Amino acid sequence: MLKILVIGSGGREHAIAKKFLDSKKVEQVYVAKGNAGMKRDGIDLVDIAENDHESLIKFAKKKQISWTFVGPEIPLLNGIVDDFITAGLKIFAPSKAAAMIEGSKSFAKEIMNKYNVPTAKYQTFFDFSKAKSYVKRKGVPIVIKKDGLAAGKGVVVAFTIEEALGALSDMLKKNQFGEGVSCVVVEEFLEGEEFSLLSFVKDKKIYPMVIAQDHKQAYDNDKGPNTGGMGAYSPVPQISQEVIDEAFERIVKPVVIGMEQDSASFTGILYAGLIATKKGPKVIEFNARFGDPEAQVVLPRLTSDLGQIIDDLLNDKEPVITWREDGITLGVVITAQGYPQNCKKGMPVPTKFNDSKITPYYAGVNCDEKGELVASGGRIFLLCTTADNVKIAQKKIYDELDKQSLDGFFYRKDIGYKAIE
Q: Which residues of the chain have pLDDT under 70?
């Protein structure tokens, strides 16, 4: 029987750990640090920070962990995989070198250019005045991206020159997205339907998952600032299988094979954020891990054993991977008011739901002195369900939310709307 350690603390890690617990091969699941909501599903929390590699390695050895699964991006770019492997421990996630596919947008662009992967035309800038001149010359709409991690928020789609220049100033001059932002990528604006194609990857072997569609903007009808994700659904009926197949052959495979050839062999979850344009699918971004909230709607559709899949991949065995083929799985993120800026905290978080077919995945929660869940800011939890179609799934989730006391919370009212237009 397997003992598994999951690194991370959000809704994504809740979904991953919960799916591992469903495995017949798994005896125990630990999450470091996790969050208080996870304990309701029998997940064991470990009070070790994700950047404390030494303590995590000691814990894994002490508890005889079979292997570790990394959820978030920061530990990957801090080299946690390299440290675990050096310590003789199995871990399913990309090395620091391979994680640069997410950690640096300019690095990702270079890989795509080298291996002829379709993506937006772009320029990289370190100097504000040169970036300003380029934007004025190209015009709007245009996309400004921080070259590095920003929790899904370091992207601005500018529809006015003023907005574009403001984004450049925030990123290159004001350090709005953290210290050390010295580079931005300025891209052409692509029109089309966005979708996420995730894959299990072990070196050059690739196993694609069912696709999903995330909703990044904070407000209904895709308005407002970018966030870490306000909800998602899977599959995406308006994206044809032909488009998915083309994306796999022209985008995912060349990148994985190219990284292998460039001595940055990828093992873990490769996330391709794509857009179906009139000229075919193109890349918006790559991530080196499960998306959040995509994981919460993709994993419930997995009908084979996740623990067995990862164990087989780590041991170079061919995994059995099967997916539910009917219905739609939809999840709505409930945030604190003010997200993605300054957020309210301390509100009681609901834990009892009227519909037994609705699953909560917790993220920004703590326990109060009475042991009850309270909001700790940002994205608080996600409610997920599977139904025959998007409209039924929407009604189930939004009817449930209407019955809850959610003062101080906020959520979009239109998750999945593109699937029923």
A: 149-153, 175-181, 421
Q: Does the global pTM surpass 0.70?
A: yes
The answer to whether 319 and 302 are in contact (CB under 8 A) is no
User: Which pLDDT score is estimated for 377?
Assistant: 86
Upper half-sphere CA count for residue 218 (Cβ side, 13 Å)? 17
What is the pLDDT at residue 175? 60
Whether 185 and 134 have beta carbons less than 8 Å apart is answered as: no
Q: How crowded is residue 127: how many other Cβ atoms within 10 Å of its Cβ? A: 12
Q: Domains of the chain, with CATH numbers?
A: 2-95 (3.40.50.20), 121-188 (3.30.1490.20), 191-314 (3.30.470.20), 328-420 (3.90.600.10)
Q: In angstroms, rounded to a whole number, what is the distance separating the alpha carbons of residues 199 and 281?
A: 16
pLDDT at position 289, please?
A: 98
CB 288 within 8 A of CB 94: yes
Tokens, residue 293: 């909230």
